[in-house]
Amino acid sequence: MNRYLKLVHMEVHRFRWVLAALMGLTAILQISSLLWIVKRELKLRAEQKLRDLVADSFSVPPPENLTFEWAMYNMQFWFILPILISISVLVVYILLIWYRDWLGRSTFIYRLLMLPSARCQLYWAKITAILLFVFVMISYQLALLSVEHFIFNLAVPADSREESHIVDAIKANPALNTLIPRRFEQFLYSYGLGTLAVLVIFTTLLFERSYRRVGILYGLLYLAGCSLVVFLAISTTTSGLRGYLYPGELFVIIIAVCIAVAIASIWLGLRLIKRKISV
Predict the structure, then answer these.
(1) pLDDT digit string (tens) for 225-260?
(2) Do 65 and 162 touch, CB atoms closer than 8 A?
(3) Is the CB of residue 60 less than 8 Å from the CB of residue 53?
(4) What phi, psi does 66 have (nearest 5°)?
(5) End-to-end CA distance of the chain
(6) Could you say which DSSP state residue 276 is in?
């Protein structure tokens, strides 16, 4: 366990500055876009109020108050952009997390594979690191959302805003709705498929590392096979089986297929790193 934790720490230490940069970029883009949208709207409303006063000094319709939910809905592009960038960087790192150990003149992978511990710890450490990066970014986004709510309340005068909850803001923003599912089944479905994708990609990369050129073919075939099996399982919700099975039973079928693919990917990945990759 001690060596496993050291390997996880090593992976986190390698990626720490990239993760910090993604956090900083997310905070800068989201907070600056929030302030820009709020200030622009307040200026437009002030100008409209002035025009109404000039046109009719006896009848001034009160402006509709701003809400944090409105802000989240109207800043979707600048809110989603850093999230997409973070997802893209993590996807690229999933592809590079094995290859970086082979890079350089003194390949670091040789030292890792010759450690006096089971090689499976290296596999689990890399999986853990990837999942840790994902959930750290999600937790950071939740914390940042609270900060943005506080900044919104500071930027908008009390007589021009209306109280709104963060839950309403999450509902108004498609990106947040996807990242933070409201139901456990939806959370399990979204992040379960994401974890499954990481496991399948890891096995694909280990096929290439084990068999080199022919391993590329093996890996692509395995990737295509797993994708087809999962796609067929998910398609049962819209196929003719839907008329014969309850939604709960269809959900169980999908979960069972995904678990089977995950177990197969883990077994193959551990077998490849233990018996096929040599130093």
Answers:
(1) 999 999 888 887 666 556 566 767 777 888 889 999
(2) yes
(3) yes
(4) -85, 150
(5) 24
(6) I
